Amino acid sequence: MSATVSATPATVIVAIDGPSGTGKSSTSKAVAAQLGLRYLDTGAQYRAMTWWMLTHGVDVADPAEVAAAADTPRIDSGTDPEAPTISADGADASGPIRTPEVTAAVSAVSAVPEVRARITGLQRSIAASAEGGIVVEGRDIGSTVLPDADLKIFLTAAPEARAARRGGELKSAEGGRPVDLAATRRDLAERDKADSSRKTSPLRKADDAVEVDTTELTLEQVVECVVTLVEKAAQAAKAAAGKPAAKAGQV
Ligand SMILES: Nc1ncnc2c1ncn2[C@@H]1O[C@H](COP(=O)(O)OP(=O)(O)O)[C@@H](O)[C@H]1O
Ligand SMILES: Nc1ccn([C@@H]2O[C@H](COP(=O)(O)OP(=O)(O)O)[C@@H](O)[C@H]2O)c(=O)n1
Predict the structure, then answer these.
(1) pTM of the entire structure?
(2) Number of domains within the chain
(3) 27 Cα nearest atom in ligand 1
(4) For bias kind Basic and acidic residues, which ranges apply (predicted)?
(5) Distance 26 CA to ligand 1 centre (A)
(6) Which residues pair with 186 in a beta bridge?
(7) Which of 90, 139, 209, 233 holds its CA 20 to 30 A away from the CA of 69?
(8) In a domain, 247, yes or no
(9) Which string of DSSP letters, residue by residue, matches 178-214?
(10) What average pLDDT does the segment 63-75 reach?
């Protein structure tokens, strides 16, 4: 009987960043599902930490209190793109993390360096153990969390398009009641400002990220574009892995 040695599965790590409403979550989930990759929503982790703090009496306006509590809750993420999960200390957080209270507080909590260090560590260990590869979406994945990702995408969209998309979601959440689009747009702009101007690991495009403006594209078009980019990146990573190591002085 001949012994067969199975090759280590090819892994591909994809980082998708960008501001709110540019399509990160929908695109990342669809791309991961299509390509058989895992999926991590890092915004959900920051939201779960924020929810836990709000429900445990932490004053989220006080960075010292937030820092002191940052190591306490257990945050668990399920990475199946068809059914992602998020919990804090074992409690399902998927509903409560989408409330306006959490959305209003999350930028302040996620600006605290101790929170970022804790969550960044979780993200790296989830990515390292994702067999076959993973799509990780957030604000600082390409720039800070996974700087060696095989592919980095930065999604953008015009403010009106982003507000209209978020407004659509809020309207369904409100049972079809109309939402104030101007207020939604203001909230998005405020969160962008806070996330881009914080000192530790701000929202920014990594120098080697591919920027995709989704304003005029359907979700299906964005997914198709990203799938093509992932396939190319995976091929390039495979080819690079097969190359003999360069000797000193060679390129
Ligand atoms: N290219 C697109 N065109 C129209 N709607 C989109 C597009 N991409 C995403 N959406 C919708 O916009 C909303 C916000 O998308 P989401 O993926 O949650 O964005 P993000 O994760 O960047 O905040 C969702 O309702 C989603 O279905
Ligand atoms: N990698 C990340 C992801 C999210 N965040 C923070 O978490 C918040 C919520 O992220 P999210 O992805 O759920 O936001 P939405 O775009 O879904 O509204 C952001 O506004 C950031 O303050 C972060 O700081 N770094």
Answers:
(1) 0.93
(2) 1
(3) 17
(4) 164-174, 183-208
(5) 6
(6) none
(7) 139
(8) no
(9) ---HHHHHHHHHHHHHHHHH-SSS-S---TTPEEEE-
(10) 98
